[in-house]
Design goal:
The structure holds 2 protein chains of 2 kinds. By secondary structure, chain A is of the alpha+beta class. Chain A has 5 helices and 5 strands. Chain A is globular, with a radius of gyration of 16 Å. The model of chain A has no long low-confidence stretch (mean pLDDT about 95). The longest helix of chain B is centred in the C-terminal third of the chain and has 28 residues, at about 555-580. In chain B, strands 3-7-1-14-11-12-13 form a 7-stranded mixed sheet, with helices on both faces. Helices cover about 30% and strands about 25% of the residues of chain B. Classes of the chains: A alpha+beta, B alpha+beta.
Amino acid sequence: MEVTITINGTERTVDIEPRWLLVDVIRDQLGLTGTHIGCDTTSCGVCTVLVDETPVKSCTMFGVQADDRDITTVEGLKQGGELHPIQAAFKEKHGLQCGFCTPAMMLVGKTLLEQNPTPSEEDVRWAISGNLCRCTGYINIVSSIQHAGELMANPAPADA
Amino acid sequence: MTTLDHHHPKTSPEVGGIGHSVRRIEDARFLEGRGNYVDDVVLPNMLHMVIVRSPWAHAKINSIDTSGAEAIDGVVAVVTGEMLAGYNLAWMPTLSGDTQAVLATDAVRFQGQEVAAVIATDEYIARDGADAVIVDYDPLDVVTSPQQGLEESAPLIRTDKEGQVDNVAYTWESGEAASTAEALANAHKVIEIETHYPRSHPAPLETCGCVADVDSATGQVTVYMTSQAPHAHRTVFALVAGLPEQNIRIISPDIGGGFGNKVPVYPGYVIATAASLVLGVPVKWVETRSENLISTGFGRDYYMKGQLAVDEEGKITALKVDMLSDQGAFYADAQPTKFKAGLFHIVTGSYDFPFAHVVTKGVYTNKAPGGVAYRCSFRVTEASYLIERLVQNAAYELDMDPAEFRMKNFIKADQFPYHSPTGFVYDSGDYEKALRLAMDMAGYDDLRTEQAQAREEGRLMGIGIASFTEVVGAGNSKDYDILGLKMFDSAELRVHPTGKAILKLGVKTQGQGHETTFAQIVAEELGIPATDIKVVHGDTDNTPYGLGTYASRSTPVAGAATAVIARKLREKAKKIAGHLLEASPEDLDWEPGKFFVRGSPESSVSIQDIAFAAYTNHPDGMEAGLEGVHYYDPPNMTYPFGSYIVVVDLDPGTGVWKVRRMIAVDDCGVRINPMIVDGQIHGGLTEGFAMSNMQFITFDDAGNCIGSNFMDYLVPTAWETPAFELGETVTPSPHHPIGAKGIGESATVGSPAAYVNAVIDALQPYGVKNIDMPVLPDRVWEAIQDASG
């Protein structure tokens, strides 16, 4: 069946089967492979995208449920050729290693910062507790998200 | 001896050589979702494969009915073991020289074993097809532990192996029996621990998979594959399938974490390749998380008994270890041929004593095969855990502080190179210094005072230490190989005319940051900015041969190869510089980035100008170009070490323990990129915490895998994971060109014992001496109840 999804600001109409998971539609039909798949029980969170600005594990939704919804993936973070502060902060604070969980972590972090621009370590740990990472031990992900908050509050390029 | 002090980098931040926390070059693509993982590879006309797996742990296969699957619209083919047998592909060698079924023909030997494969136009249809394959099984008796496997009544699991009359996969020993037995008999005290290091799974967030693309016209086989060792896998493919090796290209694109899980060759790779060969179109296979956890390489699963002999003075005199290993249905460890239990015999750890005897036995069971070195160098993790647990209990037994007992028994800094009783030659170390620093950072004496007071108030607080030594960087070709392939590694460096360079490696990152750190080694040696150097890896057609990335071997081996080839090119550059400066090369001095005439620093030429001249104006009689390749065969292993101190608070009412502090002092020799080193330690400390606290895979009596998904197999989230305090000492490796030792696994190796020692320390008012990992609250609570009588 046909659904119309606004993906990273662009309206796209795709013909999909009702049983296809949203994550498969994003990856296979929309061709955006920055959204990953890491489990089959909605536990790992690497498929997290923003649906109407709310983080959602895209393996928990069918593609057809995204009809008329607004979806942001990692590919939508960079604007006007500039990295989003969350992206710049992950690089600066070494918040990624293999990169597999990173797109989801950044989307969750961005959402947290929009609600709470100066989160404590505990705030960040709680916000990302639905997203697994096997490489970093989270500590640098926490610093990355906090640093992104500083960058967003003070848009002047931060010095390394 | 290298005297490089990473706190004072020789190069400027712009060049970014050794000692600079250069921000990662590879991050650019990951930050924008432009990483290219295997599941992102899409080829024209590509089909999708799903594997039918056994629901039984042990059963005879009577028949396989594929007709229902074949009738589904979109199903293109169903592959069975019988079909593969026609190509002599029903079985394959493991990296330990055993055999493993690709698709079962006679019987299934573990739950989740590969029985058939369905190939269809999309993955959903392939799954429908897999559900429609009907297999008729006769269940057989099941072996769920190595102890049970050794009983006379146990069913024989490997009925496929000629001459195999029992369930023993291997026996192996190291050290000296008689002297060790004598020392134990004459000991003042013998401290004994029996413990199970439980089965765990590396569970990288990206599961295993491949896209196999066989060109039926040319015979070219291209396999995009989650491979930590692409060259070794290419050779295995050539040997298994009898394909000409020049026509096989393994591409290991971005890897979403490996931790040892992506070292073995899995049946799925072989089936997909065979299917592509037969069907003439690309075939993609990507396993689900459940498939990953129930069928691919597990880690650990060692039952260990250690006996530590000590004298009246508190000196260790000998160590006896008996180990029984649960290998699963196929002996599929990936480790050097001559060491059947990996490097488990490093179990004497950081301590100086004359005698040790290590006896090991591997047993087949009806569980998934594996025994991969999960973020460790061939079983050094299990070894480190056992000795560090024994040492703490020995201190209790002698009424000594565990730190004091360690200090008394450490190999001293002036004893290196140190010959261990099981045959290792430790290259360098200063264990006392690392422990002292950790104690200073922790405020150790104050913590002990606080603990005494807490005990008086009825609160349980524990302080646990682990002073581990690793053996990594396999390895010298005399001792180390995988299936006969010697464990050297390689680097090919090409400096282009404009002074930019490309470095090609036989190793392959899975997130460790090779594209940055290896560029930094070249930057250090040639003065070319790290950001001007592209690192290429993971493509066997475009990189020199190497054995891959695991066992912390990339920096010790390929890192050394990189430094050596850069130095060779610098020698050539010196001759070109002499030609350009019209001076004798002997009269030239080097500083990072340029040669200058000794005494006339204004008369200099940059590496970039030299590179241009190498292609435009090279001296008569010299080969043009500034390129070369080096294969590095290390003279010895490297021996990273460290001391960790964990402080826990434990609630006796619930058995729950919380990490209050984790202090980690690591010595990995020279640190190339301190930021990346710290990141590696953070990750390892978390995996160590996971194993001590929650992460294990169990089986019920029927051999059903409990822990087959991320709801049952617990890996820590940010919420459970403690914060870490890092410290460092720097004892350069004396034999490594840049003094580096490897850091990717130290924290996973060293930290489990520190966490568990802290919990056991907290329980000393109850006299509890051991709880097996993971130290779950109910196990703690039971131990307290038992001790309270």
